[in-house]
Design a protein that fits this description.
Layout (H helix, E strand, L loop, with lengths): L6 H13 L4 H7 L13 H7 L5 H10 L4 E2 H7 L2 H9 L3 E4 L2 E4 L2 E5 L2 E5 L19 H9 L7 E5 L5 H6 L5 E6 L2 H13 L5 E5 L11 E6 L22 H9 L4 E16 L4 H9 L4 E12 H7 L1 H4 L7 H14 L2 E13 L6 E5 L9 H16 L2 H5 L4 E2 L3 E10 L2 E11 L5 E5 L1 H8 L7 H12 L3 H17 L3 E2 L5
Parallel strand pairs: 6-7, 6-9, 7-8, 9-10, 11-13
Antiparallel strand pairs: 1-3, 2-3, 4-5, 10-12, 11-12, 14-18, 15-16, 16-17
Helix pairs in contact: 12-14, 15-19, 17-18, 18-19
């Protein structure tokens, strides 16, 4: 693995990658490197074809992203001599007999370049303490997490440091921890590579390194796979079933300041005879937090065992049936009928708390931390604002909503049979509307109070004023909690 050298020297290497256009967009879109060279995909010929030019970007991608050896002479044409020498000093490159081989993988994420183990090493040998590149779950959590300016942040299970280093751009200070000592070595290397100094990395298990401290924000992309055995430190839950994620949900809030947030990606099981919602309720009861859960997926036990099979057995496909049956037996013995997964955000708040769960299978491809904060504000409005407070408010829809309507031919004309309001940007949301209140939604432009909207509905529909007022209040609360309204500023 790479070796720490002078921080200034590592920063020069990181700057060279950035100046060469080594970005996620360039690798994915320009070079079309959407896959890594896996034997089962038989794609190496195509990936080598896409990185054949004698440019810095092509050659850096070939050796440090695809993990392929390169001709030393060609590589020296593309990389300045001083940088080439620093890469050797840092043991990122091994040069022998005119051939340069990578000792690590370099993956871009936002404005960072991050060094990790070559993931394709999994095709050669099983490394329990493998340190992974920023993967799809990393990307999802990085988009989900809040970027709180001036915050003190704790990144639990930091791996090679991607979330901690991203958060360092806005935070006052970040603590990144991992039980895997190799991961912490990579994280410290990456901090120097990117010139980031307001981060400390420590080896430690779960919450233990933060004992006695409290934070404005805690983020975690923990090992949450529901596995029969703990084969990989970075992904397999160290506790029975979903016990590790449950432990974090119950214990992490104790390390939050009032108003602080804990965010994580996780999976939870559904067991025979218990609703999965009831299982989650037990995670949150008494933890002193408001909770927003974004449920992204669910698989039956057999489908889940299949989906996770490659992570469990990357080397020996001839053992697929054996391992699949072992996993399925593990789930059967514990009455697991399904596994669900998604994102959780918890905000520490004294007093009564609420829990909101939304099905959002496809989270946004851009950062949506602000949308998460808005969901909390909207749910607060729905849960705690009194009727009198709402009646004097003049609500307005956000600019990101669209109203959809379906009409059916009936009695010689067209009658609305379905009306729905959709939040089309950011964190998706959708709400079916009953025909009488759809007209109210169309008038929510901030010019009339809820009281006036209710009076207009009563007159329009010939309805009792009290009934109309209750219906509009209910509608406003649902729109607020779903993110459809511009919310009033709070002190």
């Amino acid at each position: 693995m790479p070796r720490l050298i002078a921080p200034g020297s590592l920063r020069r290497i990181g700057t060279f990658f950035s100046d060469s256009g080594y970005t996620r967009e360039a690798l994915r879109d320009t070079l079309e490197l959407s896959e890594l060279p896996w034997r089962k995909l038989r794609n190496l010929h195509f990936l080598l074809h896409k990185t054949q030019e004698a440019t810095a970007l092509h050659q850096l991608a070939r050796i440090f992203y695809l993990g392929q050896p390169a001709d030393e002479a060609l590589l020296r044409q593309c990389i300045p001599g001083a940088i080439f020498g620093l890469m050797q000093d840092a043991e990122m490159l091994e040069v022998k007999g005119g051939v340069a081989k990578p000792a690590c993988m370099v993956a871009p994420l936002e404005n960072l370049v991050l060094v990790s183990d070559q993931i394709t090493n999994m095709e050669v040998e099983l490394l329990p303490d493998l340190v992974l590149l920023p993967n799809p779950t990393t990307l999802t959590v990085s988009r989900f997490m809040l970027r709180k300016r001036g915050a003190n942040v704790f990144d639990l299970g930091t791996g090679c440091g991607p979330l901690a280093l991203l958060l360092a751009g806005s935070a006052k200070h970040v603590l990144g921890t991992d039980i895997n000592p190799r991961a912490i070595e990579f994280a410290r290397f990456n901090a120097a590579l990117n010139g980031i100094e307001n981060v400390d990395f420590e080896v430690g298990d779960a919450l233990a390194p933060a004992e006695g401290r409290q934070f404005d924000l805690i983020v975690a992309n923990p090992p949450f796979f529901v596995s029969a055995e703990r084969q990989f430190v970075f992904c397999d839950s160290p506790l029975e079933l979903d016990g590790f994620s449950r432990m974090l949900a119950r214990e992490a809030p104790k390390y939050l300041l009032e108003g602080g947030f804990f965010q994580m990606m996780c999976e939870w099981v559904e067991v025979k005879g218990q609703r999965w919602q009831d299982r989650l309720d037990e995670w949150f009861t008494g933890n002193g937090c408001d909770v927003f859960v974004i449920k992204g997926f669910e698989f039956g036990a057999a489908k889940y065992a299949h989906e996770r099979l490659f992570e469990a057995n990357p080397l020996h496909p001839e053992r697929d049936i054996e391992i699949f049956e072992q996993r399925l037996a593990y789930y059967r013995e514990r009455n697991v009928t399904a596994v669900h997964g998604g994102l959780m955000a918890m905000r520490r708040k004294a007093g009564s708390n609420w829990v909101r769960i939304e099905d959002i299978p496809h989270p946004p491809k851009e950062c949506f931390g602000d949308d998460v904060v808005a969901r909390f504000a909207g749910q607060d409005l729905a849960a705690w604002a009194t009727d009198e407070q709402l009646l004097d408010w003049k609500p307005a829809l956000t600019s990101r909503v669209r109203l959809r309507q379906e009409l059916t031919a009936r009695d010689g004309g067209w009658q609305p049979t379905m009306q729905r309001i959709d939040l089309v940007e950011g964190l998706a949301s959708s709400l079916a509307l009953e025909p009488p209140v759809a007209s109210v939604v169309c008038r929510l432009d901030g010019s009339r109070s809820v009281r006036e909207q209710a009076a207009a509905l009563a007159a329009e529909a010939g309805a009792d004023a009290g009934v109309a007022q209750a219906e509009v209040l209910r509608l406003v609360r649902r729109l607020g909690s779903g993110g459809f309204l511009e919310l009033p500023a709070t002190g």
